[in-house]
Description:
Chain A is mostly helical. Helices cover about 75% and strands about 0% of the residues of chain A. In chain B, α3 runs parallel beside α5 (about 140-155) and α5 (about 140-155) packs parallel to α6. The longest helix of chain B is centred in the C-terminal third of the chain and has 17 residues, at about 170-185. The interface of A and B includes residues 96, 218 and 233 of A.
Amino acid sequence: MEVKLQKGPLTARRVIGISLILMVALGAAILISLVCGTAKISFVDVFRVFSDSSHVRESTKLIVLRIRLPRVILAGLAGFTLSLGGLVFQALLRNPLADPFVLGVSSGAAFGAVIAIILGFSFGYGVPLFAFLGAIITIYLVLAISKRAMGVESSTAILAGVIVNAFFTAIIMFFIATSTEDRLHSMLFWLYGDLSQSRISYSVMTAPVAIAGFFLLYSFSRHLNLLAAGEESALHLGVNVERARLVCFLAVSLMVGVAVSFTGLIGFVGLIVPHLARMLLGSDNRLLMPVSALGGALFLIAADTAARTVMSPSELPVGVVTAFLGAPFFIYLLKTRGSRWTQ
Amino acid sequence: MIQFSDVGFQYDEGLWALKNISFQAGKSELVGVLGPNGSGKTTLLKLGNGLLRPRQGEVLLEGKSIDSYSRIQIAREVAMVPQQTHFHFTFSVLEVVLMGRFPYLKRFEFEGERDVEIARRALETTHSIEFASRPIDELSGGERQRVLIARALAQEPSVMLLDEPTAFLDLKFKKEIFELISSLVRANAIAAVVVSHDIELAAKYCDRIIMLKEGEIVFVGKPHEVLTCESVEYVYECSVVVDENPVTGAPRVSVV
């Protein structure tokens, strides 16, 4: 007698289908976000800006194309990067509490960016490059601190991340407090992410890194699935664990470094979005990667739209909004899942 | 077939964790490895799947040195059933078994019909098909162990290594797992090496028994030849009586 399987495995069609739905939702979110704001601009105006701009007032064009669009795109790219980074860190450390912010990678990147500005490397890819180096150093520190004979212990890594995070934040505050540099003074956003200074050139620099990083990480999505049962189990099934870990940590550090150097510290995106995705769709990283990345973009665009509209005409930094949502969420995760997952 | 040829291993300079290990497990043969804690059993399995490289001698898979295999190639030949596996994220039983297809898939490839068919058969063989869509972490210890054996089968291995697969199970499941291993080793012409502390079950189901003490093979042979009062007392340093099970005729070890 042949027994049939009730449910088939994950297919490429399902991954692509769900990704397309999310892309449509993302397009809608971008549009809505372009309409929202202190200045009253209608959907029709936004459409006209992109179709026949001769019928729109110059000021409307300026607001949509120069102020709102760069900000929305950068928010999307940052959300994409941070959420994907969170997912990958969680898989690598087998702990749902890991994310670039919690592990201190974001603040390490911000530290690198601040150093670049102080040393006068603030042209072109100078700041992102230093941010990348800051992120790498942080990852190295966190892993070195939490390394045990049998691999990295994930709860120690989280704790190490918290400590490194506090340390780098203190250094950044020190520089901001003592520096006469105007750019640092005006950019408290290193400490709580802010997208109000967005320029389209930032997105042009961030996008290729984010997209290339996504595909590189995606090529390790099955490897990351296998890591869920531990590194030794993954080795038994043929995964080159050392290489997978190295490539993934480097790729996330690069992506997060570049994003943070333009947005400052935006916390908890990588915690909330992958977790919701996992609750809805299971743990297969081949599906979770596009869902987390696109969902992260969606989430941060929504959060930033809220940040610039709820207190209108004054604005909140988007990091305040994500922390406001994320900190309770972190506690919720710790209470409900912490004991089961942090071993 | 897996063959150890005069293998020696030391973790650091100094004490040999294993030395002069020579044995082989052929097709359809189940070899049991017994010995006290710290006698080198786990090290032996790690050498068998290339996670450790011998300091001396060599390990041969199908007659070729394991050094000539890549990690992926080893995973196509050698499947490992661990003692107990904890999944940190929720995967369904089917997803776990399909993980066994990893060494056969290309980088961006998804499991195809053939892979699903292999997984389905593995689930059927291990009597775990009825919980294929359940989350692995909701299963009992015995059920989970069967799923891990199914995952190993999905690798279509020629060699299976089992590291105390019955360690955390009750009597009924212990017997069930040994029965399962013994039948699928024969049905799939697999060479299997099982490390165990369940002397009597090993005696009943294994074709040959190897007894390790302080990193060396001290006894080897058919269960009823090897398992004597003298050998068990010598290896485990514990007084025992060995007699014959009145029903099965297999050696029976009782502590006195």
